Fold:
Amino acid sequence: LQFVKRALEELKPPPDQQDQQDQKDEQDQQDQQDQQDQQDQQEQQDQQDQQDRQDQQDQQDQQDQQEQQEQQEQQEQKQIPTSSETNPKEGEQPSAPLTAQMTPEQAMQLLESQKDEARPLIFRPAKPPTSSVFKDW
Structure:
């Protein structure tokens, strides 16, 4: 019996060693937690940086689109002929036929007049086949 007690006491670490082991375990857990926190912070920073780059890219794209629209508008304004170009001088033939524009009142009158002429289309199904053999599969 005494032999067993001695063996157990030898297997049990002394209280100081147990405390040291507990402190080491706590320190390891704390280190792991710190590493995890650092990784989380790094991931958040990376995500924020990526979001910032995306926002900058979007702003640049918007500015590019606005510049393109402005350039298009300027080109269109250049293409609009002046009054001297639209009214040819006497003896000259116009280079292109002029298009007439309708006023809103004229457009309404045209639609009203066409409304009276509108008729519904009546759908008549085609005659069924006259042959006696009809397979539907």
